[in-house]
Amino acid sequence: MVWNRIMIGVITAGGKGTRLSSIASDIPKPMVNIVNKPIIQYQIECLRDNNLKDIYILIGHLGYVIKDYFKDGKDFGVSIKYIEEKEPLGSAGSLYFLRDIIQDDFVFVFGDLMLDVFFERMIKFHKEHHAMITLLSHPNSHPFDSDLIVADDNDLVVGIDSKHNVRDYYYHNLVNAGVYVVSHHIFDSFFKEPIKTDFEKNVVNIELQNETVYSYHSTEYVKDAGTPDRYYSVCDDVKNGIVKAKNLKNPQKCIFLDRDGTINKYKGFIRDINSIELEDGVADGIKNINKSEYLTIVITNQPVIARGEVKVEELSAFHNKIETLLGKEGAYYDDLFYCPHHPDSGFEGEIKELKFDCRKPKTGLLLKAKEKYNIDLSKCFFVGDSTMDIQTGINAGMKTILVKTGNKGEDGKYDAKPDYIITNLSEISKIVEGE
Questions:
Q1: Which residues are designated catalytic?
Q2: Predicted TM-score (pTM) above 0.90
């Protein structure tokens, strides 16, 4: 991809990492060792593998440790130059010193993140949307104490839901990961003097008003290793090959989940948000999938839209409730695809233009997910409570799991036999781990 060869990678690495003092107190946080390599080395190698070989590292506290280790970058297959703060300038203030150097869009990464990202794909998204800032977004296991992104159906970021807000409402679990592609035109408005600048608060939040910030939703591995618990979790993920496996260059494995009767308790067509309750064992089951190399994607038929019984905004609120309830238990799904169609007529308020059908057991939604996330369907499972769910998995060439909640497979719609049967979703790990 010729268009990104002149792009620059910038890593901000000036933080002190006080939360990791029990592990390493005499080195900057990006130099904390993860399975025999400093965390920033994984970033440098990832940038290099995406043909981003000109790298600037913004250093501050104990920055000489980084310089002494990487030098000019030649031994790592890149060219590294350093911008050294004389006084703390926040996460982005040192970008001032690059305003006359950077002539094209650039990748900007926080130096304490373990990541493995297909940057060429993210850059392509950024260019196609003519964005000023593209931020990598994903759900996480602790949305209740995270700043959340609010994006529209076109991936335009329209707001930030601060973690300090009193959240007496249900919310979409979508978090800013700390990985960006940034237009060089950012220097027309920001970084005109070397002052302390927080990239999220002082740049992203202001640029939102110009409607030029976009959310690039990715399932790739990006995690903050900034606390002891997260540090040890990241170490395990590197050892187990999960970090590299999640890069979207690689074909992905996925556990596809039905919604009604599998995730939330089956109550027929749900038209009221108060009817949504999680099935027993769901949070534990999904949490175990989240820890594996498998993605978690929900596939659901929602004909209540075509029937005119529920509006799209209401359905989004239903899903926000599910995500909020899961998030409180440390679980999340990576994405959700729903079919709003219904082939039948005669409903009061029905939407006639939705009178065609892509519903399960057809595989249209699975093919959309496959395209979006480079999924190898032959290495996936479909999990549901009905024979229709099992038939969907069979039609897509996947292995199937019947969960004995909801319909318990007693709907009688198809003569479809599952590969596995479990009592509830908490038992799924013993099947997945055996594959």
A1: 258, 260
A2: yes
